[in-house]
Write a structure and sequence with these properties.
Elements lengths: L8 E10 L5 E10 L11 H12 L2
């Protein structure tokens, strides 16, 4: 399973392992898969001049 196969929402992933003596152990973890969110970059007015000077070097 790859993580891109999971639908958005809460999921419980459980791993179980057994050794040659048949001792079994398991553990679970809950993960939240959400939608990607792209947020705009917001800068303070004092940062705009610095950003412009940095972009001139590109």
């Amino acid at each position: 399973m790859t993580l891109d196969e999971l639908n958005p929402g809460w999921h419980t992933l459980t791993l179980e392992a057994a050794d040659s003596d048949e001792f079994v152990s398991q553990d679970s973890v809950e993960v939240f898969m959400g939608y990607e969110i792209y947020l705009p970059l917001v800068m303070r007015e004092s940062q705009v001049g610095l950003a412009k000077s940095m972009m001139r070097g590109w």
